[in-house]
Specification:
With about 450 residues, the chain is α/β, with parallel strands linked by helices. Helix content is about 30%, strand content about 25%.
Length: about 450
């Protein structure tokens, strides 16, 4: 498989690294020679300097022989034109573009991106996906991560194990899952002291662990309670940043929970007026610098249950979250782009971190692993993914109990969805063709897991 990636920023570089480690032939295009040099030297990929939308650059990058083009430059227009040129001149079979401007996204349903108009097969809109993800987390305030899987029947939860009211601390992981009513959860992975791993049955839960759990949708509250979380859904929310993420989030929360009191802080005067018009009188929009303590007091940050910091500046998001927690705000959800801040965040009292690059990468990888993979979520870029896959007649997981299949240590099936029912599997569970499984797969065992699932990549039509 050959892939051309347009854009050598954080997203493009990370996608290139993932694909290259899986043996895929990758070429990365960027206008910045330093970015190209870095990606060319650091990973087993080829770098090309030039404008990603120029035919000569795409030809130099090998677009004529490419199976897929992934356009993730900072410019919507460059991404769109790159897909058009790849289709019209080089017949690239699959074209993915990241688009951010709301005006372009609104045209998705009009047919603008059909092959006969502007041929983009997959549009990635990270700001909308991020807003949706934050809205999910607001509904389960004790979780630092929450992702619906299998059509919403199953929830992937990231839960921090604190010191208070957590009765399962010290228990074996096998006991925690088995003792839960109706076997309603499956523990997939643990992050302990910065290291992520798949726990054995006899490993024990420790204070400070971050636990990734699969739960049936209707049992999420019970699972959260088992880990000592009884937080109430926020009724007062302050959003910092009136960009695409902040605006989409405010609209979604207003639509789904009209009783929630929302205040939005935006620094730019013109943008704040535009956002106020979009949201109407139901949401209070405050114009000013969120790092100003007086402004935070005006927003009544001390009585808010949650602050959501989603400006375009990582440092602003981090510092305003810290100030809000100091003022009495109970929970902070913070958008952070730079990976260098990852180790710092837990020491600052920030409850949940949102990574735009992780959202985009998960979406792209799901379409690269097109076989029987229906959904995909990257847990950590250096660890693995939670995937939803359909079991086909080609799967090597059929007709034998799971406990007898000898699954690799880096693969754990956490849930099985069969005709709308969710099963939390055990060693005696037999999979059937047509089942949807939600499984953790570490990158070290990715190829083997794909082979077992019958999810090997096929050429694009």
């Amino acid at each position: 498989m050959r892939v051309v990636i347009c854009g050598a920023g954080q997203v493009g570089t990370t996608i290139a690294r993932h694909l290259a480690t899986e043996g895929i032939n990758v070429t990365v295009i960027d206008i910045d020679p330093e970015q190209v040099r870095r990606v060319d030297e650091s990973y087993d990929v080829r770098g090309v300097i030039g404008h990603a939308s120029h035919p000569a650059t795409l030809q130099q990058a090998g677009a004529r022989d490419a199976d897929m083009l992934i356009a993730v430059t900072r410019s919507d227009e460059v991404n769109m034109v790159a897909c058009q040129v790849a289709y019209s001149l080089f017949n690239v079979k699959r074209r993915i573009a990241r688009l951010r401007h709301a005006g372009y996204l609104a045209q998705d349903k009009t047919g603008l991106y059909a092959a006969e108009h502007l041929p983009i097969d997959i549009i990635i809109a990270p700001e909308i996906v991020i807003a949706e993800g934050i809205a999910h987390r607001l509904r389960t305030p004790g979780a630092f991560d929450k992702v619906p899987m299998a059509g919403g029947l199953v929830e992937l939860l990231g839960i921090h194990t604190g010191t208070s009211n957590c009765s399962v601390v010290g228990q074996r992981f096998a006991e925690i899952a088995e003792n839960h009513p109706d076997g309603g959860m499956s523990i997939l992975a643990i992050v302990r002291h910065g290291r992520c791993f798949v726990p054995d049955r006899d490993d024990r839960l420790e204070i400070g662990d971050d636990v990734y759990v699969l739960a049936r949708k209707h049992q999420v509250d019970d699972v959260m309670a088992a880990f000592g979380h009884h937080e109430r859904v926020a009724k007062r929310v302050v959003i910092v940043g009136g960009g695409n993420v902040g605006l989409h989030l405010a609209k979604r929360v207003r639509r789904e929970s009209p009783s929630v009191d929302i205040k939005l802080i935006e620094r730019d005067k013109e943008r704040s007026e535009e956002v106020a018009r979009e949201l109407g009188g139901a949401t209070i929009v405050i114009q000013g610098d969120a790092l100003d303590r007086d402004l935070l007091e005006e927003a009544q940050i001390g009585s808010a249950e949650t602050i959501v910091a989603v400006t375009n500046d990582d440092e602003t998001n981090i510092f305003v979250s810290v100030l809000a927690k100091q003022a009495g705000c109970k929970r902070a959800i913070t958008l952070v782009n730079k990976r260098t801040y990852e180790s710092l965040i837990p020491t600052l009292g920030i409850d949940a971190v949102v990574s735009p690059s992780a959202v985009t990468i998960s979406t792209v990888l799901r379409h690269v692993r097109h076989g029987s993979i229906l959904a995909l979520y990257t847990l950590r870029e250096d660890f693995g993914e939670v995937v939803e896959a359909e079991i086909t007649e080609d799967s090597r997981l059929l007709r034998r109990p799971l406990g007898h299949l000898g699954l690799p240590a880096g693969m754990k099936i956490g849930a099985v969805v069969r005709q709308g029912d969710v099963l939390i599997p055990d060693d005696e569970t037999l999979l059937e063709a047509g089942d949807h499984v939600v499984a953790l797969v570490t990158y070290s065992h990715l190829r083997l897991a794909e082979a077992l699932l019958g999810a090997a990549r096929r050429p694009f039509a």
